[in-house]
Amino acid sequence: MSACSEYYPTEPSSPVVTTASVPGPQSVQGLETLGQVFDARPAYFLADYEKSLGNYIVDADGNAFLDVYAQIASIALGYNNPKLIEAAKSPEMIRALVDRPALGNFPSKDLAPILQKILDFAPKGQDKVWSGLSGADANELAFKAAFMYYRAKQRGYNAAFSAEENTTVMQNAQPGSPQLAVLSFKKAFHGRLFASGSSTCSKPIHKLDFPAFEWPHAEYPYYAFPLAENEAANRAEDDRCLKIVEDLITSWPTPVAALIVEPIQSEGGDNHASTYFLQKLRDLTLKHGVVYIIDEVQTGVGATGKAWCHEWADIQPPVDLVTFSKKFQSAGYFFHDPLFVPNQPYRQFNTWCGEPARMIIAGAIAQEVTDKNLIQQVSRVGDYLFGKLEQLQSQNPDKFQRLRGQHRGTFIAWDLPSSAQRDALLKSLKQKGCNVGGCAEKSVRLRPTLTFEEKHADILLEALTQAVAELEN
């Protein structure tokens, strides 16, 4: 029995859309009411999570959509997963929700085993974790860890802070508040908070109107596809971008303390980094004493056919920090060097130091992914889906430009000629019962759950075939 059938024996066999448009009248009415107290303008529709099941999300009108977007890539095992419901009813969860421990000062006696389940799923080479509340928070915490580590190397890990540092930091001045930079990449998305916003460079709307740090943005490789037919050109593109990275590190007026990169830029257009590029970034960060941060917020927890996408590159030595969130339903960063623990308490700290309730769910997700061999399933289904998309591409090359994600699980994307055509395709797919997302200006991205199977892929492919044909008319 497949994992999906075991989890969801009554999952719908196909989508059902009964309203003439999406969102339907009940969703529209509900969103208008919600909009009076909450900004509901980005909403696709009003969801009914009680009725949603497995790979299907149901809206307030009773429409059941095959969900190939999965809450912006953040649902790992499907809706109303019985194992996660079981974890939600556990005594540990009751304590975490009702008494929500202030973990820094009053950690619970069951925190260590909760964290161990997360660490059992950690990327290769990482054996420690610090928890946060969201993907953006995870990246901001990683930046803090990187800055403190960078300065500790300069000062000496056990050296006392000087009187001048203690005085100037209260004035937001140097040397207590040093001028340091994080290098990120154009088209990157690392969050919408202040430091993460300064490293984000995908869409203006993400960061308009709030102050930003003067931090550098390097060029991220933009490959020609299929990869196998463009190896020389793509290697040249890697080398071009690597030179820009090194030039920025050595010339930026503010010392570059850290570099953050997504192994696949997700919001910025599903741009892939080669194993060569990711390893060469490691070489550069070691050469110049820069902390290397991999942002696995969207790519982590199995979606690319590895537990963590950067593991495809087998980066040596392991990167310094790996941030996570989304499919793990928790957030934070993994690390291995004990010097990333600040030299004094209360430096990396807040009231809750993460969310133990979410950590419990993360541990349950990790256990199910392992027990059900879901990463192997993702690889199998992804290869099946990609092969079928290649057939559609051969018939409609204009509508499947730069098809990418081969042998990267179900983390698949392609471009349309324009944003208008991409948006029209997504609208048509929704009307046909498939909830699919876009990214960048004209890309379609697939982000199903880890329980997505060939039968689900066939439903999506049929809807895509019809929707693409409609674009031609």
UniProtKB/TrEMBL annotation:
Residues 11-21 have a biased composition (Polar residues). It comes from the Eukaryota. GO terms for cellular component: cytosol; mitochondrion. InterPro entries: 4NH2But_aminotransferase_euk (IPR004631), Aminotrans_3 (IPR005814), Aminotrans_3_PPA_site (IPR049704), PyrdxlP-dep_Trfase (IPR015424), PyrdxlP-dep_Trfase_major (IPR015421), PyrdxlP-dep_Trfase_small (IPR015422). Residues 1-21 are annotated as: Disordered. One of its GO terms (biological process) is gamma-aminobutyric acid catabolic process. Belongs to the class-III pyridoxal-phosphate-dependent aminotransferase family. This is 4-aminobutyrate aminotransferase. It comes from Lachancea dasiensis.
